[in-house]
Amino acid sequence: MNENLILKTLRIRPFLFLVLSEFFAMFANNLLNFALLIVVFGISRSNTAVAGVVMAFTIPSILFGVWAGVMVDRWNKKSVLLLTNVLRGLFIIPLIFFNTNLWLVYLFTFCVSVVTQFFIPAETPIIPLLVRKDLLLSANALFGMGIYVSIFLAYALSGPFIYLFGRSNIFLVLAIVYLIAGLFIVLIKADKSRIEPKAINGAALDFKQEAKIVFQLISKTKNLYHALFSLTLIQVIVLAFAAIGPGYATQVLKIRVESFPILFVTPAILGIFLGAIIIGSFFPKTSRSLLTKVGLYILGIAVLLLPYGSKVESRSIAHLLNLYLPHMLRINILHIMVLLAFIIGFAVAFVFIPANTILQEEAGDESRGKIYGILNTFVGVTSIIPVILVGGLADIFGVGTIVSVIGLVVLAIAMIRTFLKD
Q1: What tens digit of pLDDT does each residue of 52-98 get?
Q2: Residue range of the domain that includes 391
Q3: Quick one: three-class SS letters along 357-390?
Q4: What is the CATH number of the domain that holds 24?
Q5: Any idea what DSSP says for residue 205?
Q6: Residue range 130-158: mean pLDDT, rounded
Q7: Does residue 213 lie in a domain region?
Q8: Is 215 domain-assigned?
Q9: Whole-number mean pLDDT of the chain?
Q10: What is the pTM of this model?
Q11: Does 198 reside within a domain?
């Protein structure tokens, strides 16, 4: 990755404050997600109940995603980011008192998710308003790293934070973190002529007209709809894994649920970092569509192999190698899972960074919020059935079988994309 471009991008103070705000907001949001998954699994010991939390986060995107995107493009995105962070902090305060009631957990989770639908169309689309076009890829790489570092820390600290603060006080801590994210938004100073909303073609259009224009833009711009599809697929897979992650830890790995985040997400984040560095250093002019397809192939193979670590561990060649390897390096199911998690993270970088850059480059300032709102709705619509199914099917057929099916589906999609030669 070109260090000069990265440093030049970081010297843009509004963008730096945006990255810091995004870090704290995503840290709070992801830690909330993971904490809720652990809390609900502890209450119910059911993959289906855990899937219910994922659905509470997902359904609002179906109901409000496109509408929120249209509205955010009419508003000052800085104000939207500030208000949504403050509101999410306020909405999780009731969880301090009602975190043992499954239905109330679902309710307040739903409320937080409704507010998040307005946050999403403002966060990434504001980047081109703060940095020059020639720094956009570097900005997206930095922004993506910030997002995934926050995910890593949230996942890694979810178990320890619950132990340290307790199942009630953890929600108070998260409310404070959301407010810190809002403080960094206040510090952003930018030219109002850039961040103020612009009407399409200088006219005030109603919701249906604006949505129609953006859908037409997507349908006519091949790069846009392929990028949307790739980002949707990645997020659906993440949601599916969130629903079955606790079960994968206990049923396949035979470890405590609280240990899973650091053992799986840590190597995945390192893989994302390596992928981002390689993309920026060696493939700045390579077709971004090609990069996403390579990422999908690697992702599909790695996910497909996840349930079979025990079979590799039991092979005679593994036993032979273990005789000569130090204890910490001996081949076992956990080591294999860590390696595959690293590869999964590497693959995600090859999809996430180029696809986001495509969306920002192909869409104008007046349309980005709506496009990300549509993306959010696509994720909700396309994930609702898989997330419901993976939780229930994992309880019936076992987590390993469902993980293998997910890997096969990703590989099939990568092959179809190759055949279509987009």
Answers
A1: 887 888 788 888 888 888 888 888 888 999 999 999 999 999 888 88
A2: 3-187+220-420
A3: HHHHHHCCCCCHHHHHHHHHHHHHHHHHHHHHHH
A4: 1.20.1250.20
A5: -
A6: 78
A7: no
A8: no
A9: 79
A10: 0.70
A11: no
